[in-house]
Amino acid sequence: MISQRGDKVAAAVVDRTDDKSFFGHPKGLAYLAFTETWERFSYYGMTALVVLYMVQQLLLPGHIENVAGMAAYRSALESVFGPMSVQALASQTFGLYSGLVFFTPVFGGIIADRFLGAKRTVVIGALLMSAGHFAMAFDSSFLFALLLLILGCGCLKGSISAQVGQLYPRHEESRRTRAYAIFSMAINFGGVGGPLLCGYLAQVYGWHAGFGAAGVMMILATIVYLSGMRHLPDQQPRRSDRPALPPLTSAERKIVLLLILVMVITVFQTIAYFQIYNAGMIWISEHADLATPLGSVPVPWFNSIDAFASIIVVPPLVILWAHQAKAGREPGDIAKIGIGAAIAAASAGILALASVAAGAGRAPALFPILAYAGMGLAFIFYWPTFLALVSRVAPAKVNSTLMGAAYLSFFIGNIIMGWIGTLYEKMNPTAFWSLNAAIAATGALIVLAVGKPISRALTRSPGSDVLEYS
After folding, report:
1. How many C-beta atoms surround the C-beta of residue 172 within 10 A?
2. Residues contacting 397, CB < 8 A, separation 6+
3. What are the helix (H) ranges across 166-249?
4. Distances, alpha carbon 457 to alpha carbons 254, 267, 397, in Å
5. Helix boundaries (H) for 328-461
């Protein structure tokens, strides 16, 4: 039986669905999308700089001594991984940071579901991230800045992604999937602009100018979200004085386990994808020909390519998928995830070929351009598809929590990616990128082997809050 509260939520969803003022979608999608545009502008602007900043300045003698807590932090890492070079320390630090950024949304989802509600949780996250970006403008507060960013992302990411799905009733599967594609496209606008602006400012005015610009963009994200809160789902936390929701049914538990299995599959391509932000930056600075008649291209600009590619491919992909859906030939969610893994493997393979072409010199910039563009295409195939899948089939009782848990694939993938990045100096570049290609290809092969049984199992697992889908 659906609770009275569930009836009110369903009615609210219907009311929002009647609003099609944003390209056929509710107005709330526009505010969520533009919030993420500015938030990702700041995040990817900072991400494009941080590895190079560590390798080329922060972790070098004369600077590393000024970072508060660095001696204890490095000692802790080396007690686990052994002595670390500057590049290895930077790679492991980036892996831990980017991994934890996607681990804390699990707790952010729980906070939203049980204590504060999604709106308050997102606002807190945005403020923490703003403080973190500004703290990056100083060497001494580097580790504290990373901590603030990790906690802020935890509060913001899972809750804001869940709010996208809550704009639609559960039976509007295709429309929800397209909304997540639009949401991801908006994110990638920020992913394009952030590295371009922050990279330019860092090259011309210094690293901290680039980090400061990221902080300004995060403030804009906070303002946009606050402006649009009245158009967003009014999810209330479940407090202790309210009747407890019934436990998950056996069908719902099966759905949760299947979603966890799909999450594990996505880890393989996640490792290869995020390596372009880590060792990829170092490889480009060392092995790519960046000279132009107007001067050298800033290395951080390459971090805009995958996001730009994601923007370009979304409109034709949405049209293609809609056309295929009418004809009954659209690939299922699991199949799309497998296609993304295959494309990620091919993209890492391009960097392996580029390393061969470079030899003792430098490879044409076309190689990393193609590789990064391929990673952008891979991402748009698998990540928004996975988010839409979780939003659609996850039981309502734990929807925000599972949306946060979806980012665990990024957590696991980034932790492994950071460790693999420490091998960059120990392997030749061709072998290193071939390894990353093989890892992504493993995910594609797993989907090829078990994708159809997983899809059938999800289709045949109706729960009290979940509709069947094909």
Report:
1. 15
2. 245, 246, 248, 252, 465
3. 173-205, 207-227
4. 9, 21, 21
5. 333-358, 366-393, 399-406, 408-421, 429-459
Determine if residue 332 is left, alpha or beta; phi over 0 gives left, psi from -120 to 50 gives alpha, anything else beta.
beta
Contact indicator for 386, 263 with CB cutoff of 8 Å: yes
Q: Is the distance from CB of 236 to CB of 167 less than 8 angstroms?
A: no
Q: What is the token pair recorded at 201?
A: 């400012």
Q: Is residue 465 part of a domain?
A: no
What lies within 8 Å, CB to CB, of 301 at 6+ separation is 48, 195, 196, 199, 200
pLDDT in tens, 190-205: 888 999 999 999 988 9
Domain that residue 232 falls in: 7-237+249-459
Q: Which two tokens stand for residue 434?
A: 């071939």
**What total of structural domains would you count in the chain?**
1
This prediction has a pTM of: 0.80
Q: Let me know: does 225 contact 31? Beta carbons within 8 Å.
A: yes
What is the per-residue pLDDT for 170? 66
Quickly tell me which residue has 């295929």 as its tokens: 324
C-alpha span between 20 and 445 (Å, rounded): 40
* Residue 1 resides in a domain: no
Rg (CA), the chain: 22
Whether 25 maps to a domain, the answer reads yes
Q: What is the pLDDT of residues 228-240, one digit of tens each?
A: 888 887 665 555 5
- Domain with residue 375: its CATH number is 1.20.1250.20
Residue (of 146, 283, 295, 290) closest to 214 by Cα position: 146
What b/e readout covers 138-164, taking b as 16+ CB neighbours within 10 angstroms?
Answer: ebebbbbbbbbbbbbbbbbbbbbbbbb
Domain annotation covers residue 167: yes
The residue among 364, 466, 465 whose CA lies nearest residue 5 is 465
Averaged confidence pLDDT in the chain? 84
Summarised one tens digit per residue, pLDDT across range 328-364 is: 888 888 999 999 999 999 999 999 999 988 777 788 9
User: Which stretches of 228-310 are assigned E, i.e. beta strand?
Assistant: 291-292, 295-296
Check: CB of residue 113 under 8 Å from CB of residue 26.
no
**Sign of the CA dihedral running 273, 202, 196, 384:** positive
Tokens standing for 212? 């400061």
Q: Would you put residue 238 in left (φ > 0), alpha (ψ -120 to 50) or beta?
A: beta
How far apart, in whole angstroms, are the C-alpha atoms of residue 94 and residue 374?
A: 22
Rounded to whole angstroms, the Cα distance separating 318 from 324 reads: 10
Residue matched to tokens 């003792």: 360
